[in-house]
């Protein structure tokens, strides 16, 4: 009788296995980077730094991203955990480093979700001619909160629904971007450009053409424009062929992003010339609104809608890594257990997803009350968190596989040297970012907080808050901190692993 009763007790809900396929994961990885919005925000500053060599700088910034994407692929092969960096760093380097890596991922989502939704609302209103609404803070902020809530609901209702929405948004975004690039290039060669057009040349792809300082600044911007592709790997427990498909989706995302960025970057520089882009570098994403009118004329709404769909898609997909990381941390007793709750019907992490949305909305509204520049400063602080957890992941890959690096030249180069070089580059960029952000003049606000730039103060504040929360939870519940460092299981390294990777404790 007892056995019959036990059989009737429902098992603890898990994330829905095999909910989406490789292509769905690829699309989510692409949309997480918000390519149209990223290009709009970065193309002006990159051109201001590198001139016609801006495409080359974007090519160079791809290198560390590809190396870290390889680390994600190999770590996911032996440990399919939706917590990604949190889980892998914990296994390779211990619970303290793993917890901080998880905190960094969680906070990147909190910092950027509100801004992405705001851009989606602003450009959506502009594309339909509602300029007065777009310029009204009350209207825009209200609609931004509504967008975040709707996108969060889509995430909760199921991974399949999220994937369907993303498929539609990526098609619209890529189509509009390519149409813009084709028209711009055509008008360059047809001699009908309204700006200072220059025919593209192969030499533009030389990242060293503008000098070392331009390359350094461009690489810092590159951390931002390529960031987000790993959302595909955060869905590893919900993707078919979870041992390899999410990792491959992450790698292919970076490659497709490179092609997209180079194509549009060359078209923009060729059509507008460096003077126009340099003069408007401070306009951030608005530079695309200006270019849209110059290139497309009365069809400029096409480009505006592209940025809108890009930011809208990224609003949704940015919720995914933050919520899955919180789920993984709670599951391992590194955060309060309620965050590990999975909806019994939709089989998504509903509690952690709504918490991410709630904190993101609060951050967006509070920072906006300070000033719009303060919101931009909080986004600048993103590069610190991104470089930190990407570098941790690259380092963890080499450490976790350390007993297998000398088994073959492939392992040594692609699992050891590559991720370590990527981690080293990002650590260097982290130091450069800290140096740059320490000067208040380099911030959007242009004011001093405690003698430092606001972005650095925000970054330090987030780090200190994470340390305090970690210490509090360590005192409250020490279960997670009993985990021991481990190495990759040889059975998983040398053969196709099952859904859940294993490790060998030392």
Radius of gyration: 22 Å
By CATH, the superfamily comes out as: Amino acid/polyamine transporter I
Distance between the termini: 43 Å
CATH class: Mainly Alpha
CATH topology: Amino acid/polyamine transporter I
Q: Compute the average pLDDT.
A: 83
Number of helices: 20
Total of domains: 1
Structural class: mainly alpha
Numbering strands along the chain, what is their spatial order in the largest sheet? 1-2
Q: Percent helix among the residues?
A: over 70%
Q: How many extended strands?
A: 2
Order of helices and strands: HHHHHHHHHHHHHHHHHHHEHE
Given as residue ranges, the uncertain stretches (5+ residues, pLDDT < 50) are: 1-11, 497-506
Largest sheet at a glance? 2 strands, antiparallel
Give the overall form.
globular
Assess the beta-strand content as a share of residues.
under 5%
Question: What does this protein look like?
Answer:
Helix 6 crosses helix 15, helix 9 runs parallel beside helix 12 (245-279) and helix 10 crosses helix 17 (382-400). A two-stranded antiparallel ribbon has the order 1-2. The chain contains 20 helices and two strands. The protein has one domain (15-199, 210-381): Amino acid/polyamine transporter I (Up-down Bundle). The protein has helices at 2-8, 22-33, 35-50, 54-78, 85-93, 95-127, 131-134, 137-157, 159-190, 212-226, 231-234, 245-279, 286-296, 301-331, 350-370, 372-380, 382-400, 409-437, 454-476, 490-494; strands spanning 486-488, 503-505. Residues 1-11 and 497-506 have low confidence and may be disordered. By secondary structure, the chain is mostly helical.
